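Milestone M4 deliverable, item 7.
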Amino acid sequence: MWLREQGHSVMGVELSPVALESFCMEHGIPARRRVLADFDVYEADGFTLYCGDYFKMTPALLGGVSAVYDRAALISWKPAARESYVQHLTSLTRPGTQTLLIAIEYPPEQMNGPPFPLSRDAIENLYARHYSIEELGRHEILELEPRLKARGLTELREVCYRMTRL
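Output delivered:
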């Protein structure tokens, strides 16, 4: 919502129709739904939201995307599946595309995700071949996440990265 309020056109890809419909209802967005290729597309002023398999997304569907915001996608994937996600993201973007990635860090032995922890080393291994990586900030968020604390976490950090496609 914030990006749209700043005047940006927002495109999103979500697997769950329940999540997309909840988003639209929660924010009072009167989205029109249509079918396009492998996706149900929800369209509203400033929004184009694709409901379907991220791995079926193509550059032709996305058009000229100049920025990516990954708030909860990469941390939802088990570590073994992350490489495919990042490879596909790389294929969808052009050099110069910036990605804002929100990662979380916690001792992996304390909880079996999702969300899964994502260390700086893991990010380097996944992205460094095709992206420059800059850490923008980190802060403790355990007290803001009582459900994760109840699952056994004793520490939880949110870390924000800016990555630029090379």
